Amino acid sequence: MRTLKIGKLPDQELSKILEKYTNNQDSRVLLGPKLGEDAAIIDMTSQNNNCLAVCVDPIMVNITNAPYFAVAININDIVTRGAIPKWASANIFFPENSTLEDVDLFFNQLHSAIKPHNISIVTGHTEVTSLVKNPGIILTMFGEVQKDKIITTSGAQENDSIILTGGAGIEGTAILASDLYDSLKDKVDQTTIEKARQFIYTPGICIAPAAYLAWKYQPHSLHDPTEGGIRKGIEEMALASEKGVYIYYEKIPIRPETKEICQATKDDPLAIFGSGALLISLPKDRAAQLLEEYQKHNILAKEIGKITKKHRILFQEGKEIPLEASYTDGLIDRLN
Length: 336
Fold this sequence. Notes:
Layout lengths: L10 H11 L7 E3 L9 E2 L7 E10 L6 H14 L4 E11 L5 H15 L5 E9 L7 E11 L14 E5 L4 H10 L1 H4 L5 H8 L2 H5 L3 H8 L5 E3 L5 H13 L2 E5 L7 H10 L12 E5 L1 H13 L4 E8 L3 E5 L2 E4 L8 H5 L1
Parallel strand pairs: 4-5, 9-12
Antiparallel strand pairs: 1-2, 3-6, 4-6, 7-10, 7-11, 8-10, 9-11, 12-13
Helix pairs in contact: 2-3, 4-6, 4-10, 6-10
């Protein structure tokens, strides 16, 4: 086993890695990842009415299968714009004393996560550095959308129905079940913990299937809640659209595993990491049709409220209270 030095990966080994895990299925990639090439070239000349959607998200914390997280959360950002994910740039950092086997595993995980979505990794950067304690990735993703098909968070309109897919706190539940495994064993059934640990994959944190179905019904707004959970996601949709919301707490889908684990850890299911859920606003008649579509495809989805003129209200236990959200997520401290 060969330990790598701080700095760039060895040229010969990097070339092998790139050749092994390159996934360029798009013929418009004129220049992809190659040793010595500093930027990719993508042919956009034939796409007269198309726009480029761009997002970037890092995964720099110590979690299993960080590449899967990075791919999923970037796809989520792209599809909420109505865009199809096409290309990605990966900046990957390895800590001191990493081995070539560590590098190969990381790239294998990235390749496995991105290939099913037909996304091409077109460029990036790799480095061994003393500034990180665990492998990390900063992924930039690019997607395409026709100009008249663009969807924004800020498009919600008064009297729109609000639909939530997936459930509250899917990502957060998986993190709690994994990070607090030992302390939860005496409080939560073992089967529940094991199922929750797999929430990243089932029901999953990638919302692309739910978003693709939503596109068919011309939503006014799409948003994927992340840090701060469902509470923050709803607040962001309202703030971006300069509108209010009226949310029925009892209608918000919260999976049994999430309820049980959050009860044991004293976390709010609506405030832990929300990846895996999609917020949708659209007219009530189209909302009913979309809910039927989700039911056919076995995607959990509920109408949880509506867009109002102003004020953010949560109806819970028979009372109207202000819908409050936090800028931070308590789980972050547990990851660092």
